[in-house]
Design goal:
The complex is a heterodimer of chains A (469) and B (536).
Chain A: H1 16-26, H2 32-35, H3 57-68, E1 78-79, H4 92-98, H5 101-105, H6 115-132, E2 136-137, H7 144-159, E3 163-167, H8 172-182, E4 192-196, H9 207-213, E5 218-225, H10 236-245, E6 249-254, H11 265-268, E7 272-276, E8 292-296, H12 301-306, E9 311-317, E10 323-328, H13 334-337, H14 350-387, E11 393-395, E12 403-407, H15 415-423, E13 427-428, E14 431-432, E15 443-447, H16 454-468
Parallel strand pairs in A: 1-13, 3-4, 3-5, 5-6, 6-7
Antiparallel strand pairs in A: 2-8, 7-8, 9-10, 11-12, 12-15, 14-15
Chain B: H1 6-13, E1 17-18, E2 21-22, H2 54-60, H3 84-96, H4 100-103, H5 119-126, H6 128-131, H7 143-160, E3 164-166, H8 172-189, E4 198-202, H9 208-215, E5 219-223, H10 233-239, E6 244-250, H11 262-271, E7 275-280, E8 299-303, E9 320-324, H12 326-329, E10 336-340, E11 343-347, H13 365-400, E12 422-423, H14 425-431, H15 435-442, E13 462-463, H16 473-498, E14 509-510, H17 525-531
Parallel strand pairs in B: 4-5, 4-6, 6-7, 7-8
Antiparallel strand pairs in B: 1-2, 3-9, 8-9, 10-11, 12-13
Helix pairs in contact in B: 5-13, 7-13, 8-9, 13-16, 15-16
Classes of the chains: A alpha/beta (469), B alpha/beta (536).
Chain lengths: 469, 536
């Protein structure tokens, strides 16, 4: 066994005869002669602490699948947790398209050889632009928290001001990511985050506090709708107006799947919008399905010039009606200008934009409208049933889309206890808010989308009633 | 042409005979497909969505009643209205007009390590036990996934010699950014952030090694190469001072030349109290042969979508692995994956952490694939991967250096490891055909367009092939033959090459002013209709 050459199906030239022929061409007796470029003192001479190879595909599949099978999925159990990553139905056609080998394997091939990739990217930007009501959409990257931070930095560059006002009930996770991008305040060039209050009764922003806190030194005002706690923000247009009165930009954070029924941020007058496309055709992948977008006004070129993400424009050829797509303003990115660029770009989330393109195309305007109405109806049905359980209370405004706050204080049980017991009923309960928002007591953020029907919701309610009794 | 001999056919099609094969007589699919925004008709549906049950509606009333006043969307979004088959067909046509890696030969995409992404891995991540997990699920219900992540971290620690890991970053550049933040936190904790605000990188390191420390708030100093192609050691020493945070550099750099003095650079930094990070996006040539820690580095990263086989997916989602010493471990982003007894945990209780670089857990699809790949290679296979990558590169180098107009700057007499930066300066001077023109011609042979170089082009008319272990000897011969074909064509009829491409889905692009001019650029169809077609 030890003498047997290592021939792997992923390494054609591991065949000894081939290797020998290639070495002969080079006049070498072994590859070791090339590795002489690495000085002896820097050579690793030990054996990597990695288990022996599982060579046969069948054995490897069995091994890895065996590990994965220890997981319990949201197909195995009912899942009523969202909080930034949501279980919506993924149409089969989406998976069919993004699992095409061409799309899965493509990287940075050029505009001709990878034309289809670029055309799809442009269609994604165009359709997301329609949902959001913007004529400019950039190429998405990592996730919502990341692009929120980038939007703040973008606003700082555009306005020359270094403070951004955000609501104090912004998603704590997104806030952590944004803080990482905005730097410690002691640093020169940092973007400083300041907070305005939210209305504890409704979950919406506190406009009076916004007016109090805002002055002419702020680069931007940011808000989320629906907010992290689920509430649809009623004051978007007012926030825009107040921000603009002080020369600040208005940045909206939105979940685009709500925009079949809700007024889009472009129509509200927001200068920049950001958010996550995960709901638009991505499986959750334990959060790996996330991808953050930035869209902005196209009437002033400064927005495009200061946008940190890649931009793609439609192009033409000599043949009328024949289109190409190419990167625009490439010199301003880190690829064009290194540390003089606008933040940085890198491998982002291209496959998810293809998924979202297919999703938006099959959903169409009616699909988004239906989905919005179903999410609202079923989440309210769930809230109604849960709210009828002794000791359980629904908090904040009834203006929510798919997520709502459930207060378990009256049951004498903690959210952690409730959720542990719900696992026994094969249910994933809502996100525990008790650490993030202690003022809400033992509350959890529940999420009900179109994925779960009336019977599922009634199963949830019965289980919650039992475990809180 | 019925009685044509093979030789006559070759002559007619312009195909090159070479030992073991010929260039592909290729024509890319050309569908002349309208944008989806121009297709469909009102009322068509692509997928139907569940509607609220009558009981539900009876219990809660109309959805519109829960939308705050003025927040109901009046005008429906102008999205396509299209039936499902027509949508499928449209995107399948687009996929056909995408060469990608699986069809093309991504030897062209140097510094990106475009290797085969095994199909079995795709089955693993598409199943509901991976795809349909919620990130906030109780960790008890994700033990399989956490085990895979934890064990992958152990393997990467062994490969790098480091002590701790995170797999939260959403790509290589993101892991590099993580490093800038970890170093920032390290000096913040030491109270030296006022004093230290300079990060050193080199011009042949990836642009993110310069851009991400800038985002983290540092001033960036870029060291240029000496005549060997290494970062100039004297200039490097001169750049280091009591203001230095650290370095963020690659080795081998984009040139493929291994810097034999790399540990000396690290020593210079450590003597100044600074830290050293090495960007190992391309670790393919050194797997099992050299480790970052052994050269003294405090931290490094890997791209699981390059070296460790996860596919690139049209530029993501990807996974960056960041590794560091025990000294820096307390600053890693939360949560970390830990193991106690037989159980795996998500550890959020890390008060000195930098916080988060990404939401939730990360793109762990990439980790599952990397785990499978490392397990099928084993320690011996990983070294074989490195060896064959290096052998392939040197074999291809031999062929390319025989092509008229191609040169290889720096370090004459030294062999490159996993990639080489070449120059077509001579070809451009002789014929007017440079690297961009050749890039648009080579695709006519079914070979992926070559990635040229990061900016700025220190090497004139650059290209950077990286023939990793995936490629066969025939693949390498074919790739070199395409470059030779392009060179031959340039010397015979340069205009033909400059007019390329000739066998692609579309002709050469025009209206290039759209790439810079606000009146011309159109990032969406809506903008194009308004600005260019002048429609409402």
């Amino acid at each position: 066994m030890a003498d047997k050459p290592f021939i792997h199906p992923y390494i054609p030239n591991s065949v000894p005869a081939t290797k020998e022929a290639m070495l002969d061409e080079l006049g070498l007796s072994s590859v070791e002669e090339i590795y002489a470029e690495i000085p002896d003192r820097l050579r690793f001479k030990g054996t990597l602490d990695i288990p022996p190879a599982i060579l046969a595909e069948r054995d490897l599949r069995r091994h890895v699948q065996g590990l994965l099978d220890k997981n319990i999925s949201s197909v195995d159990y009912l899942n009523f947790c969202g909080a930034g990553c949501w279980q919506h139905h993924v149409p089969s056609i989406v998976d069919e398209v993004i699992n095409r080998a061409e799309f899965v394997s493509a990287y940075c091939g050029g505009e001709y050889s990878d034309l289809g990739k670029y055309l799809t990217r442009f269609e994604f930007n165009s359709m997301l632009g329609e949902l959001l009501d913007y004529a400019a959409v950039a190429n998405p990257i990592y996730d919502w928290g990341d692009v929120a931070g980038r939007a703040f930095r973008m606003a700082r560059r555009i306005t020359g001001r270094d403070k951004v006002l955000v609501p104090s009930h912004m998603s704590p996770m997104r806030l952590m990511e944004a803080r990482t991008l905005c730097q410690p305040e002691a640093m020169v060039g940092s973007t400083k985050l300041r907070f305005f209050e939210w209305d504890r009764d409704t979950g919406m922003v506190d406009l009076d506090d916004l007016r109090t806190k805002l002055d002419d030194s702020f680069a931007a005002v940011y808000w989320e709708s629906p907010g992290y706690l689920g509430t649809i923000e009623a004051h978007g247009a007012e926030i825009v107006k107040i921000a603009h009165e002080h020369g600040a930009l208005a940045i909206a954070g939105v979940d685009p799947i709500t925009l079949g029924v809700l007024v889009p941020p472009g129509a509200l007058g927001a200068d920049i919008a950001c958010g996550d496309i995960q709901g638009l055709g991505m499986h959750m992948h334990a959060g790996g399905g996330c991808s953050g977008f930035i869209a902005f006004r196209d009437d002033d070129p400064v927005f495009a010039e200061e946008c940190p993400l890649e931009l793609y424009t439609v192009m033409e050829t000599a043949t009328p009606g024949q289109y190409a797509v190419a990167e625009a303003l490439a010199e301003r990115t880190s690829y064009g200008a290194r540390d003089q660029g606008k933040d940085w770009v890198g491998t982002a989330s291209g496959l998810w934009t293809i998924a979202a393109a297919v999703y938006m195309a099959v959903m169409g305007p009616q699909g988004f409208k239906d989905l919005g109405e179903t999410c609202i109806a079923r989440s309210h049905y769930a809230a109604k049933l849960l709210g009828e359980i002794p000791g359980v209370r629904i908090k904040l405004s009834p203006s929510f889309f798919k997520e709502f706050v459930v207060d378990f204080d009256g049951t004498g049980k903690t959210v952690a206890e409730v959720n542990k017991k719900l696992l026994g009923h094969q249910i994933f309960g809502g996100k525990d808010l008790s650490a993030e928002f202690p003022e809400l007591g033992q509350s959890a953020l529940y999420c009900v989308t179109e994925y779960y029907d009336q019977a599922d919701i009634e199963t949830l309610a019965a289980a919650v009633e039992e475990v809180t009794a | 042409m019925k009685d044509e001999t093979p030789q006559e056919k070759v002559a007619r099609l312009g195909r090159l005979r070479r030992d073991g094969g010929v260039l592909h007589d290729y024509q890319a699919p050309r569908w002349d497909e309208p944008f989806i925004m121009e297709q469909g008709s009102p009322g068509e549906r692509g997928v139907l969505v569940p509607l609220a049950e009558d009981d539900v509606t009876a219990a809660v009333g109309e959805a519109a009643d829960y939308i705050p006043e003025g927040m109901s969307r009046a005008a429906a979004p102008d999205l396509p209205e299209m039936s499902q088959y027509q949508v499928l067909r449209h995107y399948l046509r687009y996929s056909q007009m995408t060469l990608g890696m699986d069809l093309g030969s991504d030897i062209s995409e140097g510094t990106c390590t475009m290797k085969y992404s095994p199909k079995m891995h795709e089955e693993l991540i598409r199943g509901h036990k991976a795809a349909d997990l919620h990130p906030w699920q109780d960790e008890e219900t994700m033990q399989g996934l956490l085990a895979i992540v934890y064990e992958t971290g152990q393997y990467l620690k062994s490969i790098s010699g480091m002590d701790a890991f995170t797999l939260q970053p959403g790509g290589g550049s993101h892991a590099v950014f993580t490093n800038a933040c970890v170093m920032r936190r390290y000096f913040e904790a030491k109270g030296e952030l006022d004093q230290r605000n300079e990060m050193i990188t080199t011009i042949f390191s990836h642009p993110c090694d310069a851009a991400t420390p800038m985002v983290a708030g540092f001033k960036v100093i870029t060291v240029m190469p000496d005549e060997n192609g290494y970062p100039d050691l004297a200039a490097f020493k001169a750049a280091v001072s009591e203001k230095t945070v650290g370095c963020m550099i690659t080795n081998p750099e984009d040139t493929g030349i291994y810097n034999p003095q790399i540990d000396k650079y690290v020593e210079v930094l450590h003597e100044a109290g600074a830290l050293a990070f090495t960007d190992q996006a391309n670790a393919n040539g050194i797997l099992g042969f050299a480790r970052a820690r052994d050269a003294g580095f405090d931290a490094c990263h890997f791209n699981l979508h390059k070296t460790f086989s996860s596919p690139h997916g049209c530029e993501g989602p990807a996974t960056g692995a960041y590794l560091c010493t025990d000294e820096l471990a307390k600053y890693l982003p939360v949560p970390l994956v830990t193991k106690v007894g037989d159980n795996y945990h998500l550890d959020y209780d890390r008060p000195e952490s930098i916080g988060r670089v990404r939401g939730f857990l990360g793109n762990w699809m990439g980790v599952i694939r990397a785990y499978a790949w490392i397990r099928t290679m084993g320690p011996e296979g990983l070294k074989e991967v490195a060896e064959i990558s290096v052998l392939n590169n040197n074999y291809l180098d031999n062929l390319l250096m025989a092509v008229k107009g191609v040169s290889r700057p720096y370090a004459e007499g030294h062999r490159r490891l996993d990639q080489v930066r070449y120059s077509l300066e001579q070809l451009k001077e002789d014929t007017g055909v440079g690297t961009e023109a050749l890039r648009d011609r080579m695709v006519d042979f079914g070979i992926q367009s070559m990635w040229m170089s990061h900016h700025p082009w220190v090497v004139p008319e650059p290209f950077t092939p990286e023939p990793c272990e995936t490629y066969s000897k025939d693949d390498l011969d074919e790739w070199a033959a395409v470059i030779k074909k392009g060179s031959d064509e340039a010397y015979a009829d340069a205009q033909f090459v400059l007019d390329a491409p000739h066998a692609q889905p579309i002709e050469q692009m025009r209206r290039t002013e759209a790439m810079e001019d606000p009146k011309e650029w159109a990032f969406t169809w809506r903008a194009y209709k308004r600005k260019i077609l002048k429609q409402k």
